[in-house]
Every structure is written in C-alpha cells, then in structure tokens.
Design brief:
globular, single chain, 7 helices, Rossmann fold
C-alpha cells in the first residue's frame, strides 16, 4: 500500500523538539518495516528542506537528503497539478490552508492515494486516512 508523506510528518520525525516526535518516529519505523511505498511531491520536498534549514540547520538537511530522500517516490508537480493547487487554495480562501497542501491533495487524488502520514488536520478534512494524530 502507498502512503503520502507530508512536511509536517518529515519535520516531526527529524526534530526531537517537535511535540509529535515520538509518535512520528514510531509511525516512520512502522512504514519502513512494512516496506510501504512512500510518496511525496517535489513541492513538499522544497518546503521541508527550507524549514529544516531554517529551524535545524544544514546537518538536518544533510540527514534528510542522506536518510529520507532515498526511500521516497517523488511526484514531480506538473503545470496542471500546480494550477489545480492554486485554484483550490484561492477558492478556499483560508489563511492556514497552504498552497503546498492543495497541490498534495491533487497529487494524492491523481494517484489514488488514500493514506497520509501527516500532522496536519487538512488531510483529514479532505477525506484522507491519516496515520498520525492531527490536531
């Protein structure tokens, strides 16, 4: 089975100070042990790397690149997915619903992915099965 991985999950796994770190580590280990196909978008990668660099520094970026990136399948966002994400975020007009999330939702729907590893309530609101306890 395939599982989409969101920025919120990557950050929780890598940041020991994250409130969801313990749960995230357990879920991550289970996903790897079960040899699940882990999918994300290039937009999530950009967002994750930027936040890691800002919050935790280049060591964290290096750890992400060396240990996490190799086990991921990347959905490379095309112009159609980009445009659908922009349309969705503008239509929602909600300050806390991000453009990257809207692109992720479209990418998941395109690929028939129902499960998400995320600590972001928007995945559950969009009807996806969330493996982590989103607020």
């Amino acid at each position: 089975m395939t599982c989409f991985v969101d920025t919120s999950a990557f950050l929780a796994v890598l940041d020991r100070d994250d409130a969801n770190h313990s749960e995230a580590k357990a879920v991550w280990r289970r996903l790897l042990a079960d040899k699940r196909r882990l999918v994300t978008t290039n937009y999530v990668l950009v967002e994750t790397i930027a936040i890691l660099q800002l919050r935790l520094g280049m060591r964290a970026v290096q750890a992400f690149n060396d240990n996490v990136y190799p086990v991921l399948t990347i959905h490379w966002t095309d112009v159609t997915c980009h445009d659908k994400g922009m349309t969705a975020v503008l239509a929602a007009a909600r300050k806390k619903l991000s453009f990257v999330d809207c692109v992720s939702f479209d990418a998941m729907r395109q690929r028939g992915i129902r499960q998400a590893f995320a600590f972001d309530k928007h995945f559950r609101e969009q009807g996806f099965d969330v493996l982590a306890s989103a607020p």
